[in-house]
Backbone:
């Protein structure tokens, strides 16, 4: 990524400041808590919250400018896919969203709510992690430990929440899936599932897709039903787990998958393990992105807030890395 010079202008700082300095009026020395025999007043707590919010705002402005070139909607396929999925989800579940937020189009809504930047940051940190930490050696270690425990299958999950709790729409989707699977067979099951997944992509939290995962990651009831199926076998009736309904198609041949076939899942697994072991990893990767570029400030106060927050992230990351998490 090419080095950039980012200037945080007086206008940008003013936008961040609106509300931060206007929310609190008169001084308030009321003690709201005591820590290590030190009293914390309302003013002190408010000042800390304001400083934290200001630092996050500064980070957001810088991240947005740095990521747009290579992780923008027009330039990055994965970002575009995630944005489009979220937009479809909003349109289906909240048709009046544009009016509620007072914006003209869905992309403006995504930017206004911070969802667009969040997607950009997620895609960047995954990519940066892969470049920085993933090697054939780390993947082969995971492969040797996990590949024998992996399974693969298509899954379609119907969750009433994805239909805005509209019972009629939910039942219509359920009937549609059951109807198409009733006439499917092993020869066309994969094609039928793929078409149904296009029609019912699932939620951002749990997508309907083909999965290649470690068996222990699969819901116990779902795994039990999966083990009953032969290769390319599928459920024609839904598996009910809590309030949701699942349809599955087994694509696991019962053989150890090759290293190359498992590679992307192993990368994802290494990333997931790393973020679980160090909750500050993603924030640290974004710090490294910002440090690789020249950031110039309009005033010294914002520079001090920015630098202090940056050093705190680095400190938290290193402490967790050294076993303090």
Residues:
């Amino acid at each position: 990524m090419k080095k950039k010079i980012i200037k945080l202008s007086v206008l940008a700082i003013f936008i961040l400041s609106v509300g931060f300095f206007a929310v609190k009026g008169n001084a308030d020395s009321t003690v709201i808590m005591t820590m290590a025999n030190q009293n914390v007043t309302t003013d002190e707590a408010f000042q800390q919250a304001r400083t934290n919010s200001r630092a996050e705002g500064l980070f957001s402005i810088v991240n947005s400018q740095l990521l747009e070139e290579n992780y923008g909607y027009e330039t990055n396929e994965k970002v575009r896919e995630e944005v489009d999925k979220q937009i479809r989800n909003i349109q289906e579940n909240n048709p009046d969203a544009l009016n509620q937020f007072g914006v003209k189009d869905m992309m403006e809504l995504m930017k206004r709510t911070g969802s667009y930047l969040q997607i950009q940051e997620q895609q960047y940190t995954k990519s940066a992690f892969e470049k920085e930490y993933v090697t054939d050696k780390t993947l082969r270690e995971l492969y040797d430990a996990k590949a024998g425990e992996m399974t693969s299958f298509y899954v379609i999950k119907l969750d009433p929440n994805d239909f805005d709790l509209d019972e009629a729409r939910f039942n219509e989707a359920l009937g549609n899936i059951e109807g198409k699977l009733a006439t499917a067979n092993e020869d066309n099951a994969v094609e039928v599932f793929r078409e149904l997944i296009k029609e019912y992509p699932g939620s951002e939290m749990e997508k309907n897709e083909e999965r290649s995962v470690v068996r222990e990651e699969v819901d116990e009831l779902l795994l039990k039903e999966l083990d009953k199926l032969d290769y390319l076998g599928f459920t024609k009736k839904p598996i009910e787990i809590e309030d949701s309904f699942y349809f599955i198609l087994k694509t696991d041949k019962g053989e150890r998958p090759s290293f190359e076939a498992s590679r992307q899942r192993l990368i994802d697994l290494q990333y997931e393990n790393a973020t679980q072991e160090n909750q500050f990893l993603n924030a640290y990767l974004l710090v490294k992105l910002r440090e690789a570029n020249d950031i110039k400030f309009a005033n010294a106060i914002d520079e001090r807030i920015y630098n202090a927050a940056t050093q705190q992230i680095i400190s938290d990351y290193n402490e967790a890395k050294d076993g303090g998490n």
